[in-house]
Amino acid sequence: MTRTHAEQSAAHGKNNPPADQLVAGYDADDGDTRDAGRRVALVVATTTGGTGRHVASLAEGLVRAGSRVVVAGPSSTEEQFRFTRTGARFVSVEIASGPRPVADLRAWARLRTVLRGADLVHAHGLRAGLLAGLATPRSIPFVVTWHNAVLADGPLRTIYAQLEQVVARRADITLCVSPDLEARVRQLGGRDVRPGPVAAPTLPPPSRSVEEVRAEFGLPPERPLVVTVARLSPQKGLHTLIEAAAAFPTTTASGAPRAYPPLFVVAGDGPQRAELEERIAVTGAPVRLLGARNDVPDLLAAADVVTLPSQWEGSPLIAQEALRAGRPFVGTAVGGVPSLVGDAGELVPPGDPAALAAALASVLDNPDHAARLVERAAARIPLLPTPESTIAQIRAVYAELA
To answer: β-pairing, 193-195 with 120-124?
Structure first.
């Protein structure tokens, strides 16, 4: 059986060679000619969520199509997303999620060496786009995918606006995961700005029954389960979720007393954990922080409703996964969520606990309404991006620039 490029490299101990031995992440004597020779460098900064999953999916599709791919990013991203399992090479470049002058200078110098032999460089996110843009020779086509909006305030917002402008004007083609990001990049002077859909990878089927999942949480049959999958960070609006849970209506839509408040569970970890736990304790909200989980398909199958109360989202993977799993979805009308979800979900303003609670109650108290949302979700699925359509678009962009 023919081994993948990653397996061949591992056998020779070459998965992460020194930068001065690399040509776009490949040894100079690498003789792999499965493709026409396109050498693609994907650059990513520190991430624990959708951006990393997207880069891994992209690397896998490009390798399968015959490209020779290197992923350059922090070692933590390789540990979490295992880019080398896709057949790509990985080169450690420590690009932090925020400005770090000394570390950024080291990362820039490292990238200059790593990227010098690439046929095309594709950076993901503002931080990766800035450093990769400065390190990539002008003769090499440069693509940036914008995955997130800048939510900083005050002086930091002014600094980020200047960095945004540099990245917007440096890219030959900019791909954006939401319409508002497209408008932002054009405003900043981006030359060629296009939609850049991000597809949720296909989830495996549930490994446990709904009854087993509910038993884990000690739920009686009549108590609803509300599921959120999100990093515990300010962008995800989890304070709003806690306030909505704490003030959830005590009567149903018919005016009858509510036998049980819903149990809200949040799968994910992040820097806000201690702060959120404290808020849950103060409010007495029926919310459990589950930490990082590897059983999201099980949680989705058991959910009576899936909710995402974010301050901003581009093309959230959990929203796509909820629609594909046939679960009612309640989210916020921010970023790319309205265009992604359409009429297949209830959308409310961000930062509004009362509106969030009311929307969740309307779904939980009205089975017909919930069923309509599920029907609309089924109709929406063919319109969602897929890994195959995303790879096809990226390959077309690369071919255009080649």
So the answer is: unpaired
